[in-house]
Amino acid sequence: MRWDRCISLRGMEVSEFAANYLGAVGRNVVLIGGAGFDPRSTQITQMLARHVKGIKALFIREERPGVGQTTLRSRADANADHMKKLVSESDVAAISVFANDGAVIGGREVARLLSAQSWASVTDVVIDLSALSKGIVFPLVRCLMESLDQQRLRTNIHLMVYEDAGMDQSIVEVGCDRPSMMAGFEGAWGFLQSITA
Questions:
Q1: Mean pLDDT of all residues in the chain?
Q2: pLDDT digits (tens, 9 = 90+) for 25-62
Q3: Contact assessment for residue 106 and residue 62, using Cβ atoms and an 8 Å cutoff
Q4: SS3 assignment, position 43
Q5: Which domains does the chain have, with CATH numbers?
Q6: What is the pLDDT of residues 176-186, one digit of tens each?
Q7: What's the rounded mean pLDDT across residues 163-167?
Q8: For residue 181, which phi and psi values (nearest 5 degrees)?
Q9: Contact 119, 147 (CB under 8 A)
Q10: Cβ neighbours for 119, distance < 8 A, ≥ 6 positions apart
Q11: Angle at the Cα of 140 from the Cα atoms of 136 and 144, rounded to 5 degrees
């Protein structure tokens, strides 16, 4: 299994890994991260931009209904602009987390976005979890792994996170008003629902 070869690094080891492995000649690295209001949004991008030449990036902007020109949106705009300057070959993709009727659609939207990407020449994909919500991260990683396996690519996947427990406690989570399964993790639930209906 892909995760049987996993290693875990912390602190300065991550920078050393970026410089010595991801920054090596012949590596073709794509970064996927969140372009949100969280100050941690830019940390991994800054570190990788220092060590990896020619990195490409896809930054995901999680959009929620009812969020107008607020302080959080202004911070997110500033973070996205900063990240685009750090990685010149980058795109910012807006992903709707909720539909107009309140249904959670973020996981399916990010899966659709990833399925349109080409990974054939990519040696390494770095997913920066620092500023992405659970409803986006889990479907994103699953979709990417399945895409690579279906295409029989040996592309490496690296999960990175810039931790700050204090920041986590100050963020208020916005949930869905009705229970639902996370996209890509329904298992037999949909089948069982159709039988009992």
A1: 84
A2: 999 999 999 998 888 889 999 999 999 999 999 999 99
A3: yes
A4: helix
A5: 2-196 (3.40.50.11700)
A6: 455 554 545 45
A7: 62
A8: -85, 145
A9: yes
A10: 30, 125, 147, 148, 151, 153, 155
A11: 175
Token pair for 58: 């896809």
Q: SS3 of 194, please?
A: helix
Write phi, then psi, for 193 (nearest 5 degrees): -60, -40
* In the predicted structure, residue 125 carries a pLDDT above the cut 90: yes
Closest CA to 108 of 96, 117, 100: 96
Buried b (16+ CB within 10 A) or exposed e, 40-68: bbbbbbebbbebbeebbbbbbbbeeeeee
**128 has which bridge partners?**
160
The burial class, CB within 10 Å (0-12 / 13-18 / 19+), for 182 is middle
7 token code pair = 């290693």
